[in-house]
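Section 5: illustrative case.
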C-alpha cells in the first residue's frame, strides 16, 4: 500500500528535506514497524516535494497492484480469505488518514478505505465480490518504479457486492469521493 504526503514545510525559511520525513516516520511507526519512506516529487510543472510511504505488507497486495487502466479486477476471493486483516488495516488506515492527511492514496488503500466505510455502517461483509477499475489521468512528472509516484492522479471505481446489496464507489486518489451508490439486489427492488 502506498500513500503520498506533501511536505508542509517546503516553502518555509530554512527548509530541510529530512524534517518532515523524520516527523512522518515517527508518527507512522505506530501503524506499521516495517514501513518504508521515499522522497518523491509529484509536482506538475513545478516542484512539489513529498514523501511516499509503503506499508502494511502483511497483506498480499500483488493482486491489487497488478491492476491497469484496461482491466476490471475481481478481488473477492483474495479479500474474503483475509477479510479480518483487510478490516483491521482499513480501521488503521482511516485513523491514519484523519491524523496525517495524505495527498494521494494507492488503489489498495482505496479498497481498504471502502471496506472500512462499509464495515462502520454494519454492512455484512461475508462472501464479498469486489471489482476494481483504475482510471489513470496524467502521469507523474518523473518516471518512477514507485507506482503511485508514476501515476498519482487516478480514479478508482470500486464495486462491492454482498448477498443483498451492491455498492459502487468512485474515489479519486486524492481521497475525494466522486460518487457513491447502493443498490438492492432483490428482484423486486430492481
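Designed sequence:
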Amino acid at each position: 500500500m502506498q500513500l503520498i504526503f506533501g511536505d508542509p514545510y517546503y516553502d518555509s525559511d530554512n527548509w530541510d528535506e529530512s524534517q518532515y520525513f523524520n516527523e512522518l516516520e515517527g508518527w507512522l511507526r505506530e501503524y506499521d514497524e516495517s514501513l518504508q519512506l521515499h522522497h518523491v516529487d509529484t509536482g506538475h510543472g513545478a516542484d512539489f516535494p513529498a514523501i511516499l510511504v509503503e506499508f502494511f505488507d502483511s497483506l498480499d497486495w500483488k493482486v491489487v497492484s497488478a491492476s491497469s487502466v484496461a482491466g476490471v479486477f475481481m478481488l473477492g476471493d483474495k479479500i474474503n480469505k483475509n477479510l479480518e486483516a483487510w478490516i483491521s488495516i482499513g480501521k488503521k488506515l482511516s485513523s491514519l488518514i484523519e491524523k496525517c492527511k495524505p495527498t494521494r492514496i494507492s488503489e489498495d488503500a482505496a479498497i481498504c478505505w471502502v471496506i472500512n466505510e462499509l464495515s462502520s455502517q454494519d454492512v455484512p461483509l461475508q462472501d464479498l465480490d469486489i471489482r476494481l477499475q483504475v482510471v489513470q489521468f496524467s502521469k507523474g512528472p518523473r518516471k518512477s518504479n514507485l507506482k503511485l509516484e508514476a501515476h498519482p492522479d487516478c480514479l478508482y471505481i470500486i464495486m462491492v457486492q454482498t448477498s443483498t446489496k451492491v455498492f459502487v464507489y468512485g474515489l479519486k486518489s486524492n481521497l475525494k469521493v466522486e460518487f457513491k451508490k447502493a443498490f438492492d439486489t432483490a428482484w423486486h427492488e430492481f
